[in-house]
Amino acid sequence: MNPAGDSVETHSCRVRVLTTFSELDAVADAWHGLWARCESARTPYLSFEWVRTWAGHFGQDGRLFIILVEDDESILGIMPLTLVRYRLWPFTLEALETVGGESRNLIALVAPGAGAAVSVAVADYLAREVLSAGRALRLSLVPSHHPFLKLLVSALDGIRPRISMRVRLCNFAPYSPLPALWEDFERSLGRGRRKVMARSQKRLDLSRREVRIHQWHGDEIDDAMRRLFDVHDARWEELGIRGLFHDERNRAFHVDIARQCDRMGWLDLSEMEIDGRTASAHLVLVLDGVSYMMRSGRDTSFAAYDVGHLHDLHMFRTWIARGLREADFLRGAEPYKFYWTSHYRVYVELLAVGSRQRGGIPLSVTRALMRIARFISHRHPPREVLAYLRRQRATRRELRKMGVRLRA
Description:
By secondary structure, the chain is of the alpha+beta class. The protein has helices at residues 21-26, 28-37, 48-58, 115-130, 147-157, 182-189, 191-206, 221-238, 248-263, 307-322, 363-378, 382-402; strands at 7-10, 13-18, 64-70, 75-88, 91-98, 109-110, 136-143, 163-177, 211-216, 267-274, 277-287, 290-298, 326-328, 344-354. Helix 3 (48-58) runs antiparallel to helix 9 (248-263). The longest helix is centred in the last third of the chain and has 21 residues, at 382-402. It is globular, with a radius of gyration of 22 Å. It starts with 6 loop residues before the first strand and ends in a 6-residue tail after the last helix.
């Protein structure tokens, strides 16, 4: 493979790969320059701050694989990848995947009008320097109609038979378009749901409990995030499943990313408090008119008041007043998301490997190895596996009851 940091000429563009923290830090200003040109074609996950914070907590020198596409004047594209090793004795498979891929994976930050050139340069580099060396490319949680996905797939397809590739459904992601007027949003919910929310609010009002909703910033972030972690994990533990934040690294990363986003003006960290206790908490990032609903938690002892829905309703009202155009619930077709919307995105996964005719591993074997290795690495105890299965069945039943039919 090409040595780290060296440039490779690809058509009229150069491809350079960053593999160390020092190399990543050296392009911060150029990254910010490209970021400023990509308004409305970016997500928080493509920001330098997100990638650098993730790398500080989960990456290490040698695992980073940040692809830069440059011409003689500037950087045209940045594709933040990381090297993942899948081990299933006696096999080890190395794959390139998106750095810190959470949801709505737009794959790369691309200068306006440069999509075709960047996709061709990236595809040619990956085919010659990555896939031919026995490594795989796995891009997951990509919106199925994302323009750069189509360009990249077309560019990779043109390189066959040197590679094998498949794009397949992997998830759904509900979202809610936000109208200009609050009254229009209320009407979109339907009379039945408006009545349910009104009854929940009335029960809470009649309880004579003290209710407060806070927005947290600055020095208050750490404590507010700790309370969010606690209610989030407690709810999952009730289901018999370990929460995301049982891992201290996940806690530390989310606190750091909240601080970073607060400094950039993206943070919407809110907490509903009832009688001095955290009833509901939300970590949301707001960028380019879209609210990314990252993490949430609620205390189920307040379930009689539908605190999660009341808190959501307050946030929607606030976002519409601010002129936001969309609330993105991100990946996962949980029933509570469809309480607010019937819209959803289809997410797909792109998997590419070296062609079998050239000694590569078949796609089906690669995918199976990855899935089994991921499952084993999570170390789920049997009762947790059973809890997951029960939850999946309950989710399907609830979606059918709500009349939600998901289609690719």
